[in-house]
Recover the amino acids of this structure.
């Protein structure tokens, strides 16, 4: 198992419906953690890279209704 973390800047803050949908994303096997920094409007996702690639993670977040705008480079 190879753990990776990816971060995205998002636009509109997620509402109740989006947060419920993100709870479903948390239940996907291989997604370890989803964390929000509401002040900076950044979402971080820790995932199993042997199961997913970064574009799949972005797709899952978009399907949940999150307004993903740009992938951030983690140092």
């Amino acid at each position: 198992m190879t753990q990776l973390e990816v971060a995205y800047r998002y636009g509109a803050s997620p509402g109740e419906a989006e947060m419920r949908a993100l709870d479903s994303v948390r239940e996907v096997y291989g997604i370890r953690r989803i964390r929000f920094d509401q002040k900076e409007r950044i979402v971080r996702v820790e995932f199993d890279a042997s199961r997913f690639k970064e574009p799949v993670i972005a797709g899952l977040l978009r399907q949940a209704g999150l307004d993903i705008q740009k992938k951030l480079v983690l140092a």
In short: Strands lie at 3-10, 31-37, 42-48, 68-72. The chain has two helices and four strands. The two ends are 21 Å apart (CA to CA). Helices lie at 16-26, 54-63.
